[in-house]
Design a protein that fits this description.
Length: 147
Amino acid sequence: MNTSAMYFASPEDAANAFCKALEGCDLETLMAVWGSGEDLVCIHPGGNCLIGHKAIYDSWQKILGQHETRRLKIDASTLMTWSSAFISVQTSLEVIYVGNDQTPRGPLLVTRVFMNGRSGWRLVSYQATKAGPSESYKILKETHSLH
């Protein structure tokens, strides 16, 4: 698959491609969702603030390399989405399962920021942190528009 030619017509398309690539431990497709350049930010749970495509690529390579022969399953529940014509912020509560292991990892609070440009919607910021008790989160199925 030519990942450089991927075009995401909506932030939801980009988010779905990101999650599918993450579940399949597909580093190249995962990174194709990201924007290009050095104006990108990624913070993994308990990790440092990574800035720029190379630093982010190296971190995901290390994470996904631990699961090369396995698949990940992500159960995500949307907490909030804010969108405009050029930016979308999506926050979700996620639980991760590795391979056939039914032991949940997480839950994590994950926020992704997508921007719309010439090459469609691209991920520009990703932050994940360990969540507190899940009963304190209200799951929303609605999208809010930014003006």
